[in-house]
Write a structure and sequence with these properties.
The chain is mostly helical. The protein has helices spanning 28-48, 52-62, 68-77, 82-91. Helices cover 51% and strands 0% of the residues.
Amino acid sequence: MAVATKPRKTKKAKQSGPPIPTARKELAINAAYELKAKELVRDAMKESGVSINELHGRLIAMGVEISAGGLANKISRGGFSAMFMLQCMDALEVDLATLPR
């Protein structure tokens, strides 16, 4: 008569964890471009004479869902998407083709 045996448990290889995230601003190139984006929006606001609250109203009228505080935070951080920057430029009625390089 055959005797049933339990299958042997094998040790699993130790897996390394997920990669450690690094902040985008750690790279100098990213920080420089975030600063450029922030300055571009702020300069456009100044040139147009538009405050954060007025820009917020214009973005809401366009259908962009954002709070006034969220808008201020995004602009102060500078780490926003190209889509958001284009929405701001449209709200400020800035013709991007005329911007200096």
